[in-house]
Sequence to fold (234 residues):
Amino acid sequence: MKPEAVQQALEHFWIKRDEQRKKQKDGGEAGGEARGNGHLKAFEKIVADSFVDCGIGEGDIRMGKPYLPGYYRVRKQWDLVVLYKKVLVAAFEFKSQVGSVGKNFNNRFEEALGSATDLAAAQSENRPFGDVPPWLGYIFVLEETPDTEKLDRETRALFETDPNFNGLSYNQRYQEMMRRFIGKNVYDIGWFLTTKRSKDGTVTYKEPLPTATSRALQVAIEGRVKLVKAMLGE
Fold:
């Protein structure tokens, strides 16, 4: 995953969001550009290409919201699913947050947690994936704004909250979410990026979480493909 490819994916991300916003009657004020979909397709392509480079056939990489079985619900659409000889190699979710971070932070968290725990329960109870356990990835792109970087967000609740969240910005909370997802094996691997676009259209990005970079993802994909092939006796 070369930096040039990531840069191009982010430029595509912003271009598609602009196109989708223009198509919305409200000008995207209600997040319509995110609902329009397509802005993360370049990231899906980067991840798909990484599997191809590891020896997975292009025909075994399913995009376009393929379904996988659930336990609490009958099925769930994932953004990218990778197969090898009818074995589930990986399933990925791709999400983003541009604006309205205070309104949507909990929604993003609940979506991510729900998808992973539902699929894990399906495997535990019904074993639809056989002897090779599922391997899940979560990719998240966050627009960096003054709102996402503001420290000392409210943490009060009816009972004591985790003190590790004290003082964190929304950006830092997203990083902590990803860190804990990976640390607790809710997701096996992640990729977290923050991005900004200047007034002159220049797009920049950061990968602030060492455990969820493009390099870490690339190495993890290589290891996963080797492991699945070894499990199949290859």
